[in-house]
Amino acid sequence: MLRRFSVHLLLALFGGVIIYCAYQEYLSLYVMSVLMFMGVNVILSTSLNLVNGYMGEFSCGHAGFMCVGAYVSSLLGVWLFAKDKVFGEAVFDPEYALYAFPLLILAGGVAAALAGLLVAIPSYKTRGDYLAIITIAANYIIISTIENIGVIGGSRGFMGMKSLLNEMEEVVELPWMPIWVFVFTVFCVWLMRRYVSSTFGKGVTAICQDEVAAEIMSVNTNKIKTITFMLSSGMAGIGGGLFAYILGYVNPGSFNILKSTEVLVMVYLGGMGSLSGSVLSAILFTILLELLRPLQILKWIVIPLMLIILMQFRPEGIMGNRELGDLFPRLKKFYRFK
Amino acid sequence: MLESIIQNVINALQWGSFYALIALGYTLVYGVLTLINFAHGDVFMVGAYIAFFVATFFLTALGLPGWVALALCIPLTMILTSMVGVTLERIAYRPLRNKGAHRLYVVITALMCGLILEHANLAILGASRKAFPPLIDVVVYDVGGVTFTNLKIAVIVTAFLVFFFLHWVVTKTRVGMAMRAISYDKFAVPLMGIPLDQIIVVTFVLGSGFAGLAGLMFAMSYPVLEPYMGALIGWKAFIAAVVGGIGDIRGAFLGGFLLGAVEIMVVAFFPSTFRDLIAFTVLLAILTWKPTGLFGIAKTTKI
Amino acid sequence: MMAKTQAQTENTPVLEIRGLTQRFGGLTAVNDFNVKLMPGELSGLIGPNGAGKTTVFNLASGFYQPSEGQILIDGVPTAGLKPHKVTALGVARTFQNIRLWNDMTVLDNIRVAQHYRLGYGFFHAIARSKRYQQREAEIEKEAAELLDVFDLKRFADDFPKNLPYGTQRKLEIARALSSHPKLLLLDEPAAGLNSSDIHELIRLVRWIHDKFDVTIWMIEHHMDVMMELCTQIKVIDFGQTIAEGNPETVRNHPAVITAYLGDDVI
Prior knowledge:
The complex is a heterotrimer of chains A (about 350), B (about 300) and C (about 270).
Chain A: H1 6-24, H2 29-54, H3 62-81, H4 97-115, H5 117-123, H6 128-147, E1 158-159, H7 161-171, H8 176-197, H9 199-209, H10 211-216, H11 221-247, E2 249-250, H12 257-270, H13 275-291, H14 299-313, H15 324-327
Antiparallel strand pairs in A: 1-2
Helix pairs in contact in A: 2-8, 2-11, 2-12, 2-13, 3-4, 3-6, 3-11, 4-11, 5-6, 5-11, 8-9, 8-11, 9-11, 12-13
Chain B: H1 2-33, H2 40-61, H3 66-99, H4 103-125, E1 130-131, E2 140-143, E3 146-149, H5 150-172, H6 174-184, H7 188-191, H8 196-221, E4 224-225, H9 229-244, H10 249-269, H11 275-289
Antiparallel strand pairs in B: 1-4, 2-3
Helix pairs in contact in B: 1-5, 1-6, 1-8, 1-9, 1-10, 2-3, 2-4, 2-8, 2-9, 3-4, 3-8, 5-6, 5-8, 6-8, 9-10, 9-11, 10-11
Chain C: E1 15-24, E2 27-37, E3 42-46, H1 53-60, E4 68-73, E5 76-77, H2 83-89, E6 91-93, H3 106-112, H4 122-127, H5 130-149, H6 165-177, E7 183-187, H7 195-212, E8 215-219, H8 223-229, E9 232-237, E10 240-245, H9 247-252, H10 254-261
Parallel strand pairs in C: 3-8, 3-9, 6-7, 7-8
Antiparallel strand pairs in C: 1-2, 1-4, 4-5, 9-10
């Protein structure tokens, strides 16, 4: 009995430790922010893996959906719960920000999921390189659109989210941002795991390996594609929303093709079609980015070089398409995702 | 009224020429290797910088007159830029091809090479922009209210000349025939005694060389260079090539001009910040309606 | 035990094709093709290469939309239906070149083919509701049973790409049957098999026909397989029917001989 829940317990323990450290301020603000970005990267990398790994597409515009989620949750949050230059007085009492926060992030996710239709619908008829272009175009379109909406700051960006965090901490004095990041990270990975391990979700893999056979063997490919794209971009939106609140500031420029490339690197580093691979690579990649920070520009030479070398010698990434449970079969005794 | 239309047409042709030249390079490589050479836009950027250094050298170090410098600059830029392209092919793409690696891995490698080119430039030359030295006197003509410069005409003429040259190469020469053969069946070609690697090198030479030429002309027309200049143009030129129908150089050529026309049209009616947005939306719409591009051949799946 | 297929009215053909014509650009691949398969038949479709046989199958399974003509599965027209909906009507097929999902386990290959009758959707899957758990258990049980019946149980966790060719063919047929079809389309099931595997295949098809109460329509080039198994054979060439009847009739039909061997044969 204890064995079956050991993963859940471990996770709760881990989360508890981090949050406690944050509360007691044992860890510096810097370390906390790195950990939080790690969580966001986990969400981004696993959600992109759903489309690029499990479904075998080549989506290069993931940051665009992040952007949608970031802006929607930020704008909603500031409009409803904060006083600021653009929206004026808060609509609701800022005290309630604490309870509404998950809804704000989810709203960003839903908006991003709808934006995912931009890519999902063309995917019915096109695949591969053509779809890749559509994703790139979608990314640019989203950023461009926001840059042209001057009222929310356009390319200069938008801020004000910090006040929501302050309000939340005033109601209950806990380090709320790390808590939310942790909760949503676990939620997203859990959601995706449940999706891909069901027979329904295996339709995604079937489409990847032979779409014609999938269609003829009764898989409703259009429906599965829609669900998968929307889930993927929705999660990116959740990641984006968290990203925005961690920084306290958003601008469209941070969600350009370079950001999309970062997520691509994480996915291919971890292994297409491996959820645990994406989690691992997100963690590693975040650490790597921090370690390379003193190198500044050279960072963006080292990272692509790493990926090139990876493509040459281990293109399947760290985990290939296997999960941790495949590498260490004895781990399987400790959990069963049924 | 008519003047402004003609004015816009000329501007569209000139602006589209750059896209067309770059799109041609994408299409050549895609046609032969089915590879989206994501580094191509950055090869264009490298070409512009090479042109900058060569031109500066000839002008200042050797003190040559402008037009002589230009005459020397053109072939030198093209040769040096094609060497960059071929180097990329040799060290990054060929090893993967020889391993029989999945196409996706080569595409990712290309994307990464592009990033390395951009940031190596940034690291080595710094973030400050470079000003391209004037090589020739720009003469402005005014015909019935329509203004254009000799440079603009030169750009358009160059684009068309390059297209005709490439068209001739692809359709009338043996090398071109080999390139087309490879695009149909890469595996049968070496079995027929055609040196696959050499033909691929030729493809990259042509593609990168003309990207370098485009870089030179772009630098002459818009003399401010910065490391990210190739990125956005590259993406757009690639999308233009696909909209035209990638794999067919006529498609790429037309796609480039189509994009140029769309952008000029947008700027004429909307604030310039909308340019990229509308351009991308139009391209997206065309791709949704005609997924294989305007000139592309729809491939039916056989089961 | 595989349930018998739904009761059909005695006189409704399982498959009826009327005036089917298919044009690809300037090429007419199928021209005014007609067929009626009654429940329980084991019929064959033969013809030289390029005659249009697989095109007919593609049309019947909904992969192409016909230029002209009608296709009815158990009386229901398939016009405008996407392939997965046609499969839900009761058609299943195998392919000329095996199209198994090579990086999914054999068991998963069978399970995913149940997609139209999963009985739960996205939200149930995420929530792991009672319905999900019950249906997943049922599907897994049925799949395991099917593999058992086909003597493939020991391969349940293997990947199709690691199985011998003959076994892969058998698996593809098993997968097609897993969706409880009324009509099974077999596209050159003997292709690439050696003579002992072919005997095995003949035995298998006959056994499927008896045990599963399914109408079978086969394309084949191996004449011995056709002659052994089929009660009715239709011959097409250049998209048109040139002969039909029982195996004896077809074997000696002059048009058939001409089509296969040319007309300057003594």
